[in-house]
Design a protein that fits this description.
The protein is built from 15 helices and 17 strands. The chain is of the alpha+beta class. Strands 1, 2, 6, 7, 10, 11, 12, 13, 14 and 15 form a ten-stranded mixed sheet that branches. The protein has a three-stranded antiparallel sheet with strand order 5-4-16, with no helix packed on it. Bound molecules: zinc ion (ZN). Zinc ion binds next to loops.
């Protein structure tokens, strides 16, 4: 009998909601770079006698996210206290949602490993507060070997939406696609900036491996699952899962057994290491928070949120392909982020051909953005200017080479007219008389070539092409090649 080991993966994604203040107090959520323990108050420090007040905006963002993930929004949900004792949680409990979460039962589609869409079910989306942050004093920042630790509560009480998937993911590649899709969706919705490096989107993975009979597909043994923490990039999610699946498969293949535990991903060494044995739900002793009334989502809020949902990335991608005839990869690229999508459509609205606009955005716009460190929002070349440039190229009035130069000048913040002049192109394009004069000059300066053509020593037309090239160079690409060749051929015959 040959065995096949199939991974079973479920993800929990913590999304930091883009609110100005924390979930239960008026402290600022803007803690990046803030002096430790300055964005705090008695509520988020968990001082006795302080009372939490729910931030309405956090609920609205949670509802928006839930709707976009096709979840059912519960009109009645409850906050619980999740008890555990950690130094980064001064109350010794975290306010979270337990059996009555804000949203349940959604789905999202991702590209599967075989390229076909795969449906990943969403178990639930619930709201909770973030914990503080421990800073360990060991030189390499690791807990191990630290002489002592500091606690910064600035992040404590920042609102999170936790999105829990069903164990529908069957490979590290799919896990990566899923996280990317969720992140993209949250950004589209304006629910979160989704910055994984800064911790505003954090992923925990539950992974196990089932041993099956290769021939019959019968499941012979379910491996115990582990939870992996500390993956702070898409690449880390993929690598950590690859490692963990290999590790679990090897243990099962040798007839060993796995322990239910929480493991830490060490990105530098590329391994997961055991952190602690995994707590079960009853270890947390959940009970309803007596200080916070239930969340009631009214029909009005539901309706207005539903109406205000933006076009979601997958819908936009499909529309770009259909309406503008973009190839799949271009459509995906243009819909990848909302600012890029808006820029692209603005370009098209200003008269650029969709294919040409998409091509310019993928290459030139992104090249200049990367080189100069611009974001799409602050990009100095307005979509209308790019559209004008693209139209000049399409109309044969400008070569792509010169257009790139003009574009580079536009990106320096110059006006369209200045940019054209700086690139050596004339703003009004060239008149046919201008082109005639250029042809004349080129013919006169290349008498020997002209003589060769006239005496029939250019059967393949290579020399005419050479002359046309010289005229193009003189025209700074602002003339149509076909027009130049036409004039050249006429003149070469005329003067015979
Ligand atoms: Zn506070």
């Amino acid at each position: 009998m040959t065995f096949r080991y199939i991974p079973v993966i479920g993800l929990e994604i913590h999304v930091q909601l883009s609110t100005a203040t924390k979930i239960f107090c008026p402290c600022s959520t803007d803690y990046i770079g803030a002096e430790p323990n300055t964005n705090v108050c008695p509520v988020c420090l968990g001082l006795p006698g302080s009372l939490p007040v729910l931030n309405k905006k956090a609920v609205e963002l949670g509802v928006r996210a839930g709707l976009a993930l096709s979840c059912t929004i519960k009109n009645h949900s409850v906050f619980h206290r999740k008890n555990y004792f950690y130094p980064d949680l001064p109350k010794a409990y975290q306010i979270s949602q337990y059996d009555l979460p804000l949203a349940e039962g959604g789905e999202i589609f991702i590209p599967g490993d075989d390229g076909r869409p795969r449906r990943i079910r969403i178990t639930r989306l619930h709201l909770e507060e973030d914990a503080g942050k421990l800073v360990h004093s060991a030189a390499d920042g690791r807990l191990e070997g630290a002489a002592f630790s500091f606690v910064d509560y600035n992040r404590g009480g920042v609102p999170l939406a936790e999105i829990v998937s069903e164990p529908d993911i069957t490979s590290p590649g799919e896990a990566r696609e899923y996280v990317a899709r969720i992140r993209q969706t949250m950004r589209y919705l304006g629910v979160s900036d989704g910055d994984m490096e800064r911790g505003s989107l954090r992923v925990d993975a539950n992974v196990s491996v089932k041993k099956t009979d290769e021939a019959t597909g019968e499941v012979l043994c379910w491996g115990e699952r582990t939870e992996i923490k500390n993956m702070n990039s898409l690449r880390a999610v993929e690598r950590a899962l690859q490692y963990e699946i290999r590790r679990q498969t090897a243990v099962l293949a040798e007839g060993g057994s796995l322990e239910r535990e929480t493991r830490h991903w060490n990105d530098g060494e590329g391994v997961t290491t055991s952190m602690r044995s995994k707590e079960a739900a009853d270890d947390y002793r959940y009970f309803p928070d007596p200080d916070i009334p239930p969340i009631v989502v009214t029909e009005e809020l539901l309706e207005s949120t539903r109406n205000a949902l933006p076009e979601l990335p997958w819908t936009k991608e499909g529309r770009f392909a259909e309406k503008y005839g973009l190839p799949e990869t271009d459509a995906a690229f243009m819909a990848e982020s909302l600012p890029v999508a808006l820029y692209f459509e603005e370009c098209v609205k200003s008269g650029a051909s969709p294919l040409r606009a998409a091509n310019w955005i993928r290459t030139e716009v992104f090249r200049v953005m990367n080189e100069k460190g611009f974001s799409m929002d602050s990009f100095p070349v307005k979509p209308s200017a790019l559209a004008e440039l693209v139209s000049l190229v399409d109309g044969g009035k400008l070569s792509t080479t010169v257009a790139r130069e003009v574009f580079a000048r536009l990106a320096e913040g110059r006006s369209f007219k200045d940019a054209l002049e700086a690139a050596g192109a004339s703003p009004g394009g060239l008149s046919s008389e201008d082109v005639e004069k250029m042809v004349e000059r080129v013919l006169r300066a290349n008498g020997d070539v002209v003589e060769e053509i006239r005496s029939g020593r250019d059967p393949k037309g290579k020399k005419i092409k050479f002359l046309a090239g010289l005229v193009m160079r003189e025209a700074r690409g602002q003339a149509d090649v076909a027009a130049i060749s036409g004039i050249l051929e006429r003149r070469l015959k005329e003067d015979r």
